[in-house]
Amino acid sequence: MTEDLSAIFSPERLSGGGPGPLYVKLRRTLEEAVKIGRLKQGDALPPERDIAEFAAVSRVTVRKAIDDLVAEGILVRRHGSGTFVTKPVSKVEQRLSQLTSFTEDMARRGMTARSEWLHKGIHTPSPDEMMILGLAAGTKVSRLSRLRIADDQPLAIEHASVSGEFLPDPAVVTTSLYAELEKRQVRPVRAVQRISATNMKESDAGLLGVPVGAAGLSIERISYLGSGRAVEFTRSLYRGDAYDFVAELTIGAT
Amino acid sequence: MTEDLSAIFSPERLSGGGPGPLYVKLRRTLEEAVKIGRLKQGDALPPERDIAEFAAVSRVTVRKAIDDLVAEGILVRRHGSGTFVTKPVSKVEQRLSQLTSFTEDMARRGMTARSEWLHKGIHTPSPDEMMILGLAAGTKVSRLSRLRIADDQPLAIEHASVSGEFLPDPAVVTTSLYAELEKRQVRPVRAVQRISATNMKESDAGLLGVPVGAAGLSIERISYLGSGRAVEFTRSLYRGDAYDFVAELTIGAT
DNA sequence: TAGTGGTCTAGACCACCCG
DNA sequence: GGGTGGTCTAGACCACTAT
């Protein structure tokens, strides 16, 4: 084992590893070791203290190099246990051109999907909600927040707002919001989504089990009835490492 | 000024700021100060050494707190100058349901778009390229990589691969790849995109002028002719803080 | 030149996991 | 209990920016 260690982390290799600060050289050395398969998926790195000793740098410098690779998703730390090369999770694919519910979608691909409710309640609408859902003064809005879990892995956080007119009591929703809306004959038929990428904040990262700053897909969706009336306004945050959206495009009339 | 400093960073406030390590408390304090407008967009933070002194913690701890907020995109550091509250960049919106070229798209919204070529060349196709573009053995592929810049701000990195049959000499492409393909009557009419979020690696982050680990939208696109033949395979990486994709959905036939 | 962030050290102690 | 990562310190020097 000691041979392997010094082979990867020898001070000679670091000094010859191009320009830049020590932690950058060390980061590149580690990255390279993973890329060429010298360190394989699931492998444990040597303890930080050992790396520091063999590379002749301080432990703080080792941690800084590892910090960056954790932020890039290449390594994962497990407190009290060690640091490991990330095993890529198999990505869930979501068809962007179809409006489906999470529950239905996961069932269709044979995955066990469940949710943990974070919140259900009736509220006075925020200015955003009034604008987007077209609410009159004095009306209420139902808010439903949940953690989406597929095959026991947290996948997304979802905050939905529905006009109180269409869903007066959010407590009746147990699994699929869309199924409940369908029951009430107000299932949306069209939606507009806005997709962007964002670095996760502490609270969201905690719920999804990823490090602070991990990349997430942020999706805002507004769903409409056939009449053009807005029904639902949902903000979701998907784990970037676990979700793929697939969209089909056609040539655009300008 | 000193009053403001101690008002925000007093040790009392930190100790009363909930549970967790010092740098987490300090991070929350800073985050709160930004959220409630105590620190406004573009404002400079006090020097790290001053914060450390007033909060009665070491400078390393201050840096760790700031590190996290930089990773979340809330603060930006400028070497030799100071640390500042981020001014949000206005996001570019891209319609997902239409297949347009970057150049055409930016022109339509009145922005000055340009590109810097990172690479143009003819290569032996990779296994991926052979599969996706349906290349026969012995054929070549044109690769074009460029940095997309809108209003003097780097926005995306794009790596395009086109079958040599359709584009034997990539040097002829100067501005719009699609315009060139149209000239050759092989402009695609349909495409499939795969969208995910990822934390940027050093090289990409450097080109786009964002910190390592910043969130990016990763988009893989395969474009097809009317005949169903694949023309182009493009991998792009967009700055997550500067790009929004908008998609319209309709109810899906299962 | 003065002030700021960037890197780095050596050492300490805490918190968690596992045999 | 032994080993691992997590936090924290005090101090040093370097690199960049503004004036």
Care to describe what's here?
- The structure is a homodimer of 254-residue chains.
- With 254 residues, the first copy, chain A, is an alpha+beta fold.
- The first copy, chain A, has 2 domains: 3-83, Winged helix-like DNA-binding domain superfamily/Winged helix DNA-binding domain (Arc Repressor Mutant, subunit A); 90-244, Chorismate lyase (3-Layer(aba) Sandwich).
- Helix content of chain A is 30%, strand content 33%.
- Chain A is built from 9 helices and 11 strands.
- Chain A has helices at 2-9, 11-15, 22-35, 48-55, 59-71, 102-108, 127-133, 177-183, 202-208, and strands at 75-78, 82-85, 92-95, 98-99, 113-123, 141-150, 153-163, 190-199, 215-224, 230-239, 243-251.
- In chain A, the strands form 3 sheets. A 6-stranded antiparallel beta sheet of chain A has the order 5-6-7-10-9-8. A two-stranded antiparallel ribbon of chain A has the order 1-2.
- The first copy, chain A, starts with a helix and ends with a strand.
- The relative contact order of chain A is 0.12.
- Chains A and B meet through helix 5, strand 4, strand 8, strand 9 and strand 11 of A and helix 5, strand 4, strand 8, strand 9 and strand 11 of B.
- Strand 8 (190-199) of chain A pairs antiparallel with strand 11 (243-251) of chain B, so a sheet runs across the interface.
Q: What is the CATH-assigned architecture of the largest domain in chain A? A: 3-Layer(aba) Sandwich
Biggest sheet overview of chain A = 6 strands, antiparallel
Order of helices and strands of chain A: HHHHHEEEEHEHEEHEHEEE
**Count of individual domains of chain A:** 2
Q: What name does CATH use for the topology of the largest domain in chain A?
A: Chorismate lyase
CATH superfamily of the largest domain in chain A: Chorismate lyase-like
The level-1 CATH class of the largest domain in chain A? Alpha Beta
Helix content of chain A: 25-40%
Query: What's the arrangement of strands in the largest beta sheet of chain A?
Result: 5-6-7-10-9-8
Number of strands of chain A: 11
Pfam family, one (chains A, B): GntR
Keywords (chains A, B): DNA-binding, Transcription, Transcription regulation
GO molecular function (chains A, B): DNA binding; DNA-binding transcription factor activity
InterPro entries (chains A, B): Bact_HTH_transcr_reg, Chorismate_lyase_/UTRA_dom_sf, Tscrpt_reg_HTH_GntR, UTRA, WH-like_DNA-bd_sf, WH_DNA-bd_sf
